[in-house]
Write the structure tokens for this entry.
Amino acid sequence: MAQKIVVTGDINGKLSEFFTKLSTLQIRQQFAFAIIAGNLFADPETTSPSEAEDLAKLIKGEIEIPVTTYFSVGRRALPETVIEKLDSSDGELCTNLIALGRKGRVKTSDGFNVVAIGGSHHAGDDPMDPYAAKYSDKDANTAKGYNDADILVTSEWPAGVRDGSKGAVDITEPASSEALSELCSTLKPRYHFSSSETFWEREPFFHNTDPPRPITRFLSLAPFGNAAKSKWIYAFSLEPSAEPPQQLPAETTASPFLLTRKRKALDTQQDSFNSMRFANTNEPRGRHGGKRRKAAPTDPGQCYFCLSNAQCESHMIGSIGEDAYLTTAKGPLPKLTTFPDLGPSFPGHILIIPVSHIPTISSIDDAESRTKVEAEMQKYRTSLHNMLSSLSKDPETDRARLGAVTWEISRSSGVHTHWQFLPVPAELIAKGLVEAGFTVEAENSSYPTKFATSASDIAEAERGDYFKVMIWSEAMQKEMVLPLDASFRFDLQFGRRVLGKLLGLQERTHWKDCGQSKAEEEKECEAFKELFAPFDFTAQ
Ligand SMILES: [Zn+2]
């Protein structure tokens, strides 16, 4: 049965005031228990006489604690008198007030598992007092053995938790550690609480396991009574050890800890390449055997390009910005040997995808958001160009050997628009073969429309559905747009078909002929991330 739980940030020694407030809330809310995720006590350096008096009263049991309350060790040392009392009372400071300790787990009377790692990160491995305000990597590692947790409480933040979040811009990350990120990835708690000067709540994130996937919500609470009135208390309902949801909440992202480039994918399980995710189309998953049908609009929960979708292949994500992200392509067109400049493990095929579930960029109503999405997709494209320039620089000519082609199918009936990015030899571009390749293939396919190449014709063509090609080399940039209409059937593999012919890779036109194991996909994505890291503007 779901229970109400309440969590706070720092109390900083305002003990009477806080517990009076909690008593008032308790009358109405009937919380099962409370957690203080920050510092309960005042800073010993600046303790006022009234705070010292409160502390003495608390230890003597003269302040009423209205509900079972667990408190974190916090980021600074506990007062000596508190430690003495805890040592002699098995962690219960007074009736209803229980210390979570430097590292520990409690099972509440309602059956919730609460795991806590308190204090600041300590590099050494020397033995520490159970109530010392520090933890070592060893503590965090041992805590992984608790296997699961409904609630994880850590004084510091898990490193990288802001990665892949849209709301992360104006928050300074407090002290954090990788050990806590790993702990969170292992325990997969439903809630992870910490404390900070300002309240911050991350979008929920899912862990990369088989569906249904566990979701973690990370919240960091501000201090009680803070002048800025930042949220310091958070109440919620939870059922102990409930199964993960079948449907992911709309805002859910992939786990930030999987996106950080240093980390290896946790899930090494082999995938038999049975996914229907097309590298070249944005059609919804077929649900009717092999038969193609006119599909109903696909919702984000069934869309391969929505990060909120449990089917989203997070092991292929290379970078996540605010409005767009990059993945390596499933069934890439080039072989690992096609572009030796890219090294032995990355074929070069990338998808640039808006985070929002939109059929076309022009379908975003709000002009400001529309510009922002397109600008970030272009920013990714430019960063990829910079990567190619750097990797393929010919020392003799000081020119990049590689240029790139980016193509887009923009149809109002589309599911989740995206751009495909592919390196091509700069020589092919210089000779006009890329442009010619697209033009000739459209003619050979007897398409009734022609590529627009002037700015005014392009603007006209982009008013409706279209297929767009953006060609780049260090020497030139060019766009060409083919209007699409209902009078003909446009081949969704068109871009891949043209480039397959140009690169002598016709046999790889269909992504299904280019299948990779999940381990190969992971290796490819890791290789890409390493190459892209110096150019990734989201990494700063
Ligand atoms: Zn989508």
Observations:
- The longest strand covers residues 402-410.
- The pocket of zinc ion is lined by residues 300, 303, 305-306, 357, 416 (CB under 6 Å).
- The chain has twelve helices and 27 strands.
- The longest helix spans residues 367-391.
